[in-house]
Amino acid sequence: xxILVINTGSSSLKFRLFDMQxxxxxxxxxxxRIGEADGRTLLRFQPPSGxxxxxxxxxLRIADHGRAMEEMLALLGESGLLAHAGELAGxxxxxxxGGETFHEPVRIDDRVLEAIAELxxxxxxxxxxxxxxxxxxxxxxxDVPQVAVFDTAFHxxxxxxxxxxxxxxxxxxxxxxxxxxxxxxxxxxxxRQAAAFLGRPYxxxxxxxxxxxxxxxxxxxxxxxxxxxxxxxxxxEGLLMGTRxxxxxxxxxxxxxxxxxxxxxxxxxxLNRKSGLRGICGDNxxxxxxxxxxxxxxxxxxxxxxxxxxxxxxxxxxxxxxGRVDCLVFTGGIGExxxxxxxxxxxxxxxxxxxxxRERNQRQGPAIRPIHHESSDVSILVVPTNxxxxxxxQVVQVLSSPKVHTP
Length: 407
Ligand code: ADP
Description:
Elements: E1 2-8, E2 12-19, E3 24-32, E4 40-45, E5 54-59, H1 65-79, E6 88-95, E7 106-107, H2 110-118, H3 126-140, E8 146-150, H4 160-163, H5 169-175, H6 184-198, E9 206-212, E10 216-222, E11 225-229, H7 251-260, H8 264-273, H9 276-281, H10 286-294, H11 298-322, E12 327-331, H12 332-337, H13 339-346, H14 358-362, E13 369-370, E14 379-382, H15 387-400
């Protein structure tokens, strides 16, 4: 049973092909710089006969997402892994914003497309790109069932007191301004993996999950249901990120507008692209920052400290929210690889039952690994995330469920 997972951006298309029988990734690739003169396609795959991974790369102009989809299918055809789209049992689409409409993945039909389009004001950059991708896939693989999996769905379990802001209530009623949260597929996946690793029923486990990549977010999960998360109406709130500010006094925006005359686009650019780690030290790549800090660069060391301090504050807050914490999970490029971030964020949290084992924390590897000291009440785990595999799994679930999914 082959499932294709697609993640469409405004000028890119990333994809992975899975064989769900053995949960194996058969191929992964991307089409980038769609609409520009110097487009590029890349496919990495395990040939059906052969043990070494192979790669096909091409540079060509790719006019639009429809052409991108055709290039993707052509590459998969060349690899020998997928003769035609009809061999697919399903296509899963990552959709960033599901608003309050979607609490779970859904099979896509005209009503679902309409509902995703209605949510565009909440995600003006992402949802239109996701829709273009879905429509292109539906046009080129009309007989293959298509499923939308939403970044926000896992957080729809949040209680009102966690998702409402301290704003006039009518703004929620009229504009649906509230906390939605993102990275939901990852938080759901790694918390379930953690439960399986610890041999605990998912419904009985309380965990704090930290997804630390270019974007970063935290989630408090009680018995498999998310009860709070750090990202808000948009992915800007919460932890410090590569180029995003995270939590901020909203009056700073008013101050900047009044004092400097900055307009809305300028503020958007400032908060989303020029702030965070990059704003503080000029770099947004954690590897580079750790390297610079180790060589005595004060500004890089400061950026690292602020990043870790913000994580620590959320661990404290979510410990108070959950009452009992069984498990703390680190994931994402930084969470999985940066031992110094994990160590600094967990430092001096013994009174909360969180004790890291410094030696275990240094070990690297692709598998789930515990990094807590034997005296720790809370299990601390590094769990590699795999959002695409989780999307593929959810596609299989939706397609095998007799329930009719409508928004
Ligand atoms: P995205 O949010 O784009 O999916 P990733 O989850 O891939 O991002 O995370 C990217 C971040 O992970 C970058 O800041 C990168 O420097 C960091 N990272 C990757 N590998 C390492 C490593 N070995 N040590 C420290 N940081 C790392």
